Amino acid sequence: MNAMNRTKVPIPVFLLIGIIAISFSAIFVRWSDAPAAVTAMYRLLMTNVLMLPFLWNYRSEITSIRLRDWLRTAASGIALGLHFLFWMDSLRFTTVASSTAILTLEPIFVLVGAFLFYGQKTSRAAVMAMCVAIVGAVFIGWGDFQFSGAALKGDFLSLIGTVAVALHMLWGKGLRERISAFVYSFFVFLFAGLVLAITNVITGTSFTAYPAKEWGVFLLLAIIPTVFGHYVFNWLLKYMKASSVSMTVLGEPLGASILAYFLLGEKITSIQLLAGCLLLVGVGLFLRSNEKQ
Q: Exposed, middle or buried: residue 66 (CB in 10 Å: 0-12, 13-18, 19+)?
């Protein structure tokens, strides 16, 4: 029985929901004036609070998880926490288009890691489609790339965050074969939030000195890009290859750039729109080749 039959709702619907949801992440971060580590921490811990009432239903599964899987879940959570820390901080120094365009390197890292760790092979056609999509994503942010000053710092932070989320995705693929999406997501978000909380304690950052607007942004980040974005992608890891889930994330630069145009007043050029179409074509061809079932 394939994934389509098991889930009743077509997987492309979940992919679209996830892409739209994570596209709002950069917008909400730019609306916030709180430190990146604080914003990321509350984003994750508030998600845990939203999920907590349902955790009791999974108590038998939780008690059966092996120590090795707990350690891998913790590692995946730490990687996710580092991703949020570095990527969200990058938006303080560079544009939404530039920062999210660098995230397009994620599927390359995941593709190589999936081959090394899981022996997953990818066809030549899928690799070529990936290259097409990445070229499109890079051109979305090309006009904003700068090679000096604060913008370069922001791009470098985004790159570190991209490596971290690729590791999170690879660990998650193996764990999702044995752990449900809810349990995996809950504890990954918890471990990630705790890493960020420790970071804030070490740096002496305040946990409470923020106006009501900031708490609203924290909650929006928890509900939209985390629950409807990252949680959905964690669920999809059981039914799709890690490289395929990573490829769909390439839709974020296009979605974030369009949202930034309407909500932040950032410019979007005709070249960026054409590049977005190229990106979508590449992603579609990759999924068709890589997920033949």
A: exposed
Count H helices, E strands: the chain?
15, 0
- Per-residue pLDDT at 9: 60
Question: Using N-to-C axis directions, what is the helix angle for 181-203 and 149-175, rounded to 10°?
Answer: 140
CA 180 to chain CA mean position, Å: 19
- Positive or negative CA dihedral for 273, 276, 277, 278? positive
Is residue 139 pLDDT above 60, yes or no?
Answer: yes
> How is residue 186 written in tokens?
């809950």
Domain-by-domain residue ranges, the chain?
10-290
Going by C-alpha positions, the residue among 73, 80, 132, 77 that lies closest to residue 104 is 132
What does the pLDDT average to over 67-80?
96
What's the whole-model pTM score? Answer: 0.81
CB contact set of 287 (below 8 Å; sequence gap of 6+): 244, 247, 248
Pull the structure tokens for residue 231.
């949680």
Token pair for 237: 């890891």
Question: In terms of Cα–Cα distance, which of 100, 144, 155 is closest to 269?
Answer: 144
Cα separations in angstroms, 249 against 54, 100, 140, 204, 233: 27, 10, 14, 34, 9
Distance CA 145, CA 141 (A): 7
User: Angle at the Cα of 85 (from 80 to 87), degrees rounded to 5?
Assistant: 90
Q: What is the dihedral of CA 67, 58, 195, 45, to 10 degrees?
A: 180
Angstrom distance (rounded) from CA 64 to CA 66: 6
